[in-house]
Specification:
By secondary structure, the protein is mostly beta strands. It is built from 3 helices and 16 strands. The chain has a domain of 143 residues. Strands 1, 2, 3, 4, 5, 6, 7, 12, 14 and 15 form a 10-stranded mixed β-sheet that branches. Keywords: Signal.
């Protein structure tokens, strides 16, 4: 990890977790579309190859490492009530999911409301609960889009706020794959400004910032746990 990065990463546990419920090794028919690397990990009980890829520590990678791989897009929209309540609206799309018997997308307990599936492709069945969504019989390159409300905006002082995100990961057995996360944060009509973000690109991340929107792209493997800080503007 680049310690001189203009973007701060802290180890906090709020937001989305992506957890595989069942492996595929006991079902040969489910492994037909796996890559040689995925098949090797399944067939190696020691999981040594997976551990050599990543043990969970954050590593920035170049965008080409994530081409045609699992990708996550988040859009978070603050409204006039967000500064008081901490709740914001979100939509989230998971693209090019890995083939699995079952996967559970888990959100923070007591920090999630109104979970809804907007669209999906190549997924056998979907079960929606209060704070998680279970996907079953997932085919290669499946995708799903979800919307809801999440309580992730924390007031640090009368004029300062922090939005905690992640952890984001793409995990298989004991290893972590490269992935891309795109987060778009919008605060039009909300009297705040974003702190400590540079528009300079570097290995593993890129930011585009305006007065009312941030588009952040991350390319990494391991666990990504970013946060964003805002300051209330004076009238």
């Amino acid at each position: 990890m680049n310690l001189n990065s203009p973007f701060k990463i802290h180890l906090v546990f709020f937001g989305l977790l992506f957890v595989s419920l069942n492996g595929l090794a006991n079902d040969p028919q489910k492994t037909d579309d796996l890559s040689p690397e995925e098949r090797a990990w399944l067939e190696d009980d020691s999981s040594a190859q997976a551990r050599e890829i990543s043990g969970g520590e954050l590593r920035w990678v170049t965008p080409d490492k994530t081409l045609n791989q699992y990708r996550l897009e988040n859009t978070l929209t603050l409204n006039s009530d967000s500064l008081k309540s901490g709740w914001i609206d979100f939509s989230q799309c998971h693209y090019q999911l890995d083939p699995r018997i079952a996967v559970e997308i888990v959100y923070g307990v007591n920090r999630t409301q109104n979970l809804k599936v907007i669209s999906s492709q190549l997924i056998g069945s979907i079960e929606t609960a209060e704070d998680h969504i279970t996907l079953k019989d997932i085919q290669k390159n499946a995708q799903i889009c979800i919307s809801g409300k999440t309580k992730v905006l924390n007031q640090l002082s009368p004029k300062h706020y922090k939005m905690l995100r992640g952890p984001y990961m793409r995990r298989f057995l004991d290893g972590f794959y490269p992935m891309q996360v795109t987060e778009t944060i919008r605060w039009e009509g909300v009297p705040i400004k974003l702190n400590d973000i540079t528009t300079q690109s570097a290995l593993g991340y890129d930011f585009k910032v305006s007065d009312t929107e941030l588009i952040a792209n991350y390319w990494f493997e391991g666990l990504l746990k970013p946060f964003y800080e805002f300051t209330l503007e004076s009238n």
